[in-house]
Amino acid sequence: MAATLVLAAWEPEIAPLRRLARAIDPARLALGTVGVGAVDAAIGAAAAIAAARPARVIFVGTAGAFTLYKEQTKDPILIPLFKNKFYIDELYAALIAGTQELLAVISRYIDQWFIDGLLVRGLSGAAWATGFALRFLQFGNLQGYAFLFGLGVVAAIYLLVFR
After folding, report:
1. In this structure, what are the phi and psi dihedrals at residue 59, rounded to the nearest 5 degrees?
2. What angle do CA 19, 20, 26 make, to 5 degrees?
3. What is the distance between the alpha carbons of residues 64 and 7, in angstroms, rounded to a whole number?
4. Exposed, middle or buried: residue 111 (CB in 10 Å: 0-12, 13-18, 19+)?
5. Are 63 and 11 within 8 A, CB to CB?
6. Higher pLDDT, 132 or 69
């Protein structure tokens, strides 16, 4: 029979206390798990208490939180670290918000100058310039088209024979 029985819902919640329990006399401290869920926890707790018959029972982890916060309207433990939510919002503001703003500025620059400027406007400008240059070759005269065809044939023969 242990003087104090420490119960948790499942093994990961009580595992850190196992080292402490080895250093203390087993007659003074016993550890146990009761199960997850209301029915399992009630049956497990009743069985552990009946087997150990302790003077005190301490619920840790999920079971302890349920016991502590049951029917509470505000936090019964006033610890500044807990009250300020482990300063996660401040950490987020310092790391993520600043980094996000920097990445947004860099992304905007790349989008504005490289993607929109070079790729989109550059390629559309090249297509327009090609069309502008090629429109001078379309003059609607059959003799002009035949002349250009003849020039192409002469250029092809020159390249094949003399190159």
Report:
1. -95, 130
2. 105
3. 8
4. exposed
5. no
6. 132
CA distance 115 to 149: 39
Q: How far is CA 159 from the centre of its chain?
A: 61
Structure tokens at 31: 């550890």
How do strand 56-59 and strand 4-8 relate by DSSP bridges?
parallel
The residue count of the chain comes to: 163
| Helices within 70-141 (DSSP H only) | 80-83, 88-92, 98-109, 122-134
The full set of domain ranges for the chain reads: 4-77, 88-162
Dihedral angle computed from the Cα positions of residues 98, 99, 105 and 107, in that order, rounded to the nearest 10 degrees: -160
Q: How would you class 29 by CB atoms within 10 Å of its CB: exposed for 0-12, middle for 13-18, buried for 19 or more?
A: buried
Q: Are 67 and 75 in contact (CB under 8 A)?
A: no
Q: What is the pLDDT of residues 144-163, one digit of tens each?
A: 889 989 999 999 999 999 98
CA distance linking residue 113 with residue 39, whole number of Å: 64
Tell me which residue has tokens 């670290």: 81
Better-scored residue on pLDDT, 53 or 83? 53
